[in-house]
Amino acid sequence: MQRIDNGISASNGVSIARRPNSSPIGHVGFAVAEALNSLNAAICFGVSGSTNYYVCEALGRLGVRYIAAGHECNAIAMADAFARHSGRLTLASVHAGPGLTNAITAIAEAAKARTPLLVLAGDVAVGDVLSNFHIDQDALVRSVGAVPERLGSAASAVEDVVRSCETAIRERRTVVLSMPQDILQSPAPPVAIRLLERKPPAEPDSGLVHEVAQRLVAAKRPLILAGRGAVIADAGQILGQLAAEVDALLATTARAHGLFANEPWSVGIMGGFSPPAMAELIRQSDIVVGFGATFTHWTTQAGRLIASDATVIQIDSDVSRLGCQRGVDIALLGDARVTAEKILHAAQELKRGGVKGWRNEMTATVLAGREGDLRSYADTSTTEFIDPRTLCIELDALLPPERTIANDGGHFQGWPPLYLTVPDAAAWSFAMSFSSTGLGLGTAIGAALAHPERLTVLCAGDGGFMMSLSDLQTAVNLKLRMCIVIFNDASYAAEVHEFGPLGYQTSIATFPVTDFAAIARGTGAAGTIVRTKSDLADLRQWVGQGCNGVYLVDARINPDLAADWFSELLRQKHAH
């Protein structure tokens, strides 16, 4: 990040010439930026165009850091990850029309993940329906689950901004604020900036709290499941205490991976990434209590991971999420941490008595064997290809343990959470609420800026990485400490492994091998092709020298190897 000669923050050293007497101070665009600065906006990621330039320039002038992205979708993914990891008011900005359509996939991901994010979208002048840039931006935004807002007039602009920020923060929503160009250029009337109103978490129903405590205390094999809501509420420690009190095992959803990294009684991720022995423990649970988890078909393996006679309890701060994925026996509205504290207190008063749970020697033996089970695969490595599981095991030992892992979507996506450890939930970023590929690099950049003290490790497939390649240069320009691992099988492997065995031609999902290491070197990053464990020597040297800059591992993996989790998913899918 450099300061350019007019004081605007930018991601490169380009100088911007300004015409005399063209200062935007006093116009609505500047007032919008002033309001956001007063509300402690942390950073803005964007791609500037003629309709959003006023606000982006003003934000930089006021000292809000501006990161110029190469593509709008990546800009939103960066902002999404930064917001998730930092907990601060985070902005993104895109041009009208095509700028917004370029960004819409990442906006859908943020909206589905309930990321508190404000997207500042330029818009054509009010009534200018003949503009090439004109689309119904509100309808587009609404269609992907985000909240459409807009500047209504010069007089209402500041209050429109404050209201949008309140919606984003208080309701944990992704808000897209459309800013008509003519309003941004209008003179701004003097307006006081109202402070954001923050509400404390709602108190859970005391009767339901007592009932949940009773059921947990009476259970023989309780399981406590933590989702992303538990991470947001900082509920990890209290959930560990609650589990110890009621003799329960612990699990997380894929998005909450790492929350129980140091808990010996954790089965890890519940869902498609569960190793067989851990999945069997989950199936034996007679009660499953989810904190900030919605029991999606991924988490429950379409219901197969939860016994038909098990009691299912869901606790969530969003009433619309209670029972939204499956029926539950008890739905309790409340913040994950606050509710867990109250359930723990109630359970302590009830006392467990002589009921035996399953924190015993037999369960401990099963849990202790998890790592051995993961390593008991038939290594498919050759001189041409490295087995992705072997690769991950080597990387886990080689890379610094204090790291953030950003996982893109794709066929490869199950290997990193199984074989690469993270120190805590803040070190894990998995943007899969929309099940899109190609958001990984933007996610990694946002996470790296939120946690610069840690090495960021991006895991991506070759197809997904190609979608976001325009911002590899951004990562290099920002001098981020980042290791990019490309699982390169020269294909969209999910389609190859799904349709090939059914007799379909797979040539439309394969392509010539891309030399990502050469591309990385062309941007100023380091890069090497890895086919065997010995090819990691250069990466080992980079780590030894402090992990400075961006290093890309172009890992050539066997295109014929189907991931276990994906094979099981297909087996279940085609069994119906």
From TrEMBL:
<dbReference type="GO" id="GO:0003984">
    <property type="term" value="F:acetolactate synthase activity"/>
</dbReference>
<dbReference type="GO" id="GO:0009099">
    <property type="term" value="P:L-valine biosynthetic process"/>
</dbReference>
<dbReference type="InterPro" id="IPR012001">
    <property type="entry name" value="Thiamin_PyroP_enz_TPP-bd_dom"/>
</dbReference>
<dbReference type="GO" id="GO:0030976">
    <property type="term" value="F:thiamine pyrophosphate binding"/>
</dbReference>
<comment type="similarity">
    <text>Belongs to the TPP enzyme family.</text>
</comment>
<dbReference type="Pfam" id="PF02775">
    <property type="entry name" value="TPP_enzyme_C"/>
</dbReference>
<dbReference type="InterPro" id="IPR045229">
    <property type="entry name" value="TPP_enz"/>
</dbReference>
<feature type="domain" description="Thiamine pyrophosphate enzyme TPP-binding">
    <location>
        <begin position="408"/>
        <end position="539"/>
    </location>
</feature>
<dbReference type="InterPro" id="IPR029061">
    <property type="entry name" value="THDP-binding"/>
</dbReference>
<dbReference type="GO" id="GO:0000287">
    <property type="term" value="F:magnesium ion binding"/>
</dbReference>
<keyword id="KW-0786">Thiamine pyrophosphate</keyword>
<feature type="domain" description="Thiamine pyrophosphate enzyme N-terminal TPP-binding">
    <location>
        <begin position="28"/>
        <end position="130"/>
    </location>
</feature>
<dbReference type="GO" id="GO:0050660">
    <property type="term" value="F:flavin adenine dinucleotide binding"/>
</dbReference>
<dbReference type="GO" id="GO:0005948">
    <property type="term" value="C:acetolactate synthase complex"/>
</dbReference>
<protein>
    <submittedName>
        <fullName>Acetolactate synthase large subunit</fullName>
    </submittedName>
</protein>
<dbReference type="Pfam" id="PF00205">
    <property type="entry name" value="TPP_enzyme_M"/>
</dbReference>
<dbReference type="InterPro" id="IPR012000">
    <property type="entry name" value="Thiamin_PyroP_enz_cen_dom"/>
</dbReference>
<dbReference type="GO" id="GO:0009097">
    <property type="term" value="P:isoleucine biosynthetic process"/>
</dbReference>
<feature type="domain" description="Thiamine pyrophosphate enzyme central">
    <location>
        <begin position="210"/>
        <end position="342"/>
    </location>
</feature>
<dbReference type="InterPro" id="IPR011766">
    <property type="entry name" value="TPP_enzyme_TPP-bd"/>
</dbReference>
<dbReference type="Pfam" id="PF02776">
    <property type="entry name" value="TPP_enzyme_N"/>
</dbReference>
<dbReference type="InterPro" id="IPR029035">
    <property type="entry name" value="DHS-like_NAD/FAD-binding_dom"/>
</dbReference>
